[in-house]
Amino acid sequence: MSGSVSLDLVAAELGTSPRTLQRRLAEQGLRFWKIVDDTRLSIAGALLRETELSVQQISDRVGYSTPGGFARAFGRWAGMSPTTFRNVSAPGRTDWREMGRPDAHLEIVQHQPKTSRLES
């Protein structure tokens, strides 16, 4: 994500006030910062799966000020460290988030053999 994200900026882009945006999101059971965090972490997951960027580079790209803060947030979101996520969700593997269960990544570890990155 380039640049910083703020409620004020997004509301202005949508032509509404920050309070109205928050209210409309709340009507749908959503919170602005949860959407921002989920988006950052979803992008981070894609970068971990599809690139060789370091965890620090990914942390910077998705807007975290420190790799440690990013790793903690990613761990809460994915249930594992960024490095473990990269190892179990290499290209060609099932996206465990799409499987609909937070523990689905365990099936990936148990049922799919690890492949070398050199094979692709």
Structure explained in plain terms:
- This protein has 120 residues and is mainly α.
- It folds into two domains: 1-30; 32-112, Homeodomain-like (Arc Repressor Mutant, subunit A), CATH 1.10.10.60.
- It is built from seven helices and no strands.
- It has helices spanning 7-14, 18-27, 32-50, 55-61, 67-78, 82-88, 105-111.
- Helix 1 (7-14) crosses helix 2.
- Mean pLDDT is 81; it is low at 104-120.
Annotation keywords:
single chain; 120 residues; mainly alpha; Arc Repressor Mutant, subunit A; 7 helices
Q: What is the residue-mean pLDDT, rounded to a whole number? A: 81
Number of domains: 2
Major sheet, described briefly?
none
The H-and-E topology, N to C, reads as: HHHHHHH
Supply Rg: 17 Å
Under the CATH scheme, which architecture of the largest domain would be assigned? Orthogonal Bundle
Q: Classify the secondary structure makeup into a structural class.
A: mainly alpha
Query: How many individual helices?
Result: 7
